[in-house]
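Supplementary Methods. Inverse-folding protocol.

Structures were first reduced to a discrete structure-token string of length 334. This string, shown here, constituted the complete conditioning input.
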């Protein structure tokens, strides 16, 4: 067990001494949890195989599931790629810094195999959070960082969520308050003829298509075992609370509530519901960005409150809600 140091840091103007401390720990090969605009990331040097391997150990993550490498500029990303696809150039110019991850051919002399689960590609993103950027700039090296949760558990959007899973397993947690986006980055494979969305995320398909009209979607219900996946994030069981989660059509919500026993959590976005002694109700915003920003925090809270079952009012079918629907479907199937 490590003693995990939690340090408050200003989310907009990070203190230079704190940034230097985090960069120093990373440079020594240690694990440092860093806030990003999406979720908190469990960071380690991406160009050091031993450091990167510690991430898998701390998370309990299987070695077949590759990591996202974080960089401070498009140039740094290009330097990690065997070659830099035109689609990666177009998409990163449009969305970086921001919640877009591009999958490009990996330069094996720059990125060790352990980061990419031995595959020929590497996933890279430039985060938009001032703290993450400041640490990357101070370190001057790429940082591999999956979401800072134990394997298959809910992603963290606060430092308190991080500590639930990783206290004693990392050297340091930089606490910059809640993450603004709350849903992970959109992962886009740029190695083929057309860019392919491997994981829905904070940037929508429509937003991507406004830049590259030919972006395609990859079927997101891969096999259970994580083998032969284009993106192992497609493992069904993922992003899951401890409680059993059930997505319910709005018109069936009251029947479902009546039929469910035990301590019940309810997440709505459209219908109003007043909490009762046995139902703990959370009303989220009725638009996808605000909803996404608070979804994981709501599920963490309902877990902490000891809910056995969480009923979630099904979100609308349109594209802007795709990432929210995807995360709920994964949480539900576990
Ligand atoms: O918003 C985010 O992306 C957060 C923050 C911390 O940056 N990170 C994150 O990492 O969500 P993680 O490890 O929880 O999810 C990484 C996703 C997985 O779905 C993984 O399979 C996919 O990216 N991925 C990583 N490398 C890949 C590669 N070379 N090819 C295809 N998919 C890859
Ligand atoms: Mg994750």
């Amino acid at each position: 067990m490590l003693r995990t140091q939690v340090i408050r840091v200003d989310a907009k103007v990070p203190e230079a001494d704190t940034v230097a401390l985090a960069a120093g720990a990373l440079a020594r090969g240690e694990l440092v949890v860093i806030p990003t605009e999406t979720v908190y990331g469990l960071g380690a040097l991406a160009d050091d195989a031993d450091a990167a391997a510690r991430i898998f150990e701390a998370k309990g993550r299987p070695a077949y599931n590759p990591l996202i490498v974080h960089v401070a500029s498009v140039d740094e990303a290009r330097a990690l790629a065997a070659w830099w696809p035109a689609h990666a150039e177009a998409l990163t110019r449009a969305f970086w810094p921001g919640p877009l991850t591009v999958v490009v051919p990996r330069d094996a002399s720059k990125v060790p195999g352990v980061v990419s689960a031995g595959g020929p590609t590497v996933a890279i993103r430039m985060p938009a959070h001032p703290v993450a950027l400041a640490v990357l700039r101070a370190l001057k090296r790429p940082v591999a960082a999956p979401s800072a949760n134990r394997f298959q558990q809910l992603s963290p959007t606060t430092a308190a969520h991080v500590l639930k899973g990783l206290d004693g397993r990392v050297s340091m947690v930089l606490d910059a308050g809640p993450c603004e986006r709350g849903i992970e980055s959109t992962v886009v494979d740029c190695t083929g003829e057309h860019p392919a969305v491997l994981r829905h995320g904070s940037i929508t398909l429509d937003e991507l298509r406004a830049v590259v009209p030919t972006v395609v979607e990859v079927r997101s219900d891969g096999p259970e075992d994580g083998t032969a996946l284009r993106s192992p994030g497609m493992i069904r069981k993922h992003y899951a609370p401890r409680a059993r989660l059930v997505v319910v059509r709005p018109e069936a919500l009251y029947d479902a509530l009546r039929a469910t026993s035990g301590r019940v959590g309810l997440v709505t976005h459209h219908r109003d519901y007043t909490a009762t002694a046995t139902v703990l109700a959370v009303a989220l915003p009725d638009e996808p960005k605000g909803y996404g920003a608070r979804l994981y925090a709501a599920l963490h809270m309902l877990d902490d409150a000891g809910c056995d079952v969480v009923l979630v009012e099904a979100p609308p079918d349109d594209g802007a809600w795709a990432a929210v629907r995807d995360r709920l479907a994964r949480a539900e199937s576990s």
